[in-house]
Sequence to fold (252 residues):
Amino acid sequence: MKRPAAAVQRVAASGGLALALACALAGPAWAGDAAAANATPGIVADTVVAPAVVPDAQALVAEYQVRDARGERSLTLIRSADRIEYRQPGEPVELWRQTPDGIARLELFAAEKRSVAWAPGDLRTTGRMPQWEQLASPINPQLRDKLKRDGSAKTLGLNAERYRGESAEGQAIALEWLAGEGLPAYYRTGPAKPKAGDTGLYELKLVKLERVGAQTAFTATGDYRETDYADLGDMELDPFAAAYLKRNGHAH
Fold:
């Protein structure tokens, strides 16, 4: 069955992102931007008062540079009150949306112009339902509870809280946290000066942060052919569906 793309809206956890999107799947409690409420006209002294002008809903766009044993790459997080999107080169775009029934997921494959929609029930059945607070940031905000506060820092003109500590594996951790935005400004696990071939390093550095109109911030899905995850198992003759199931397992 088909469902409008707008009705459904993560990052393919790779490298250190698994800390957020799995062990901390992905991040902090998004202080998401509140959606604007519709103004209601009022009547005063027989005069109709025009509805108040409501600003467009805003989305927070955070661009990161990631460095690990695989090299360097970019990571972009887009977040509004009810939607979250992750973009990484070479990975499908992942969009998450809050719905009355829970969280829905949409994977976008740009080259094929195809998308796979996961309804909240699909995520629950397969044990992949995340917490919204974890999706809201590439680093789980609860990580801070296990680290020691170590002063302050400045990033892109914003005040950040600095933390230090160690992972369960004994790896050094450095974190600079933007409390107001609920996002990491900097995160590193592993040595500050890694040696060549060191596989323990994962570094995440914020390079740009801005607020833009939510209507244009997220990837447009109108020209994508959408398929429900639950329908993939009945599409053996569809090359895209067959390749997806080979990579990700069979749909129910």
Remarks:
- Residues 1-54 have pLDDT under 50 and may be disordered.
- The chain is about 10% helix and 40% strand.
- The longest helix spans residues 239-248.
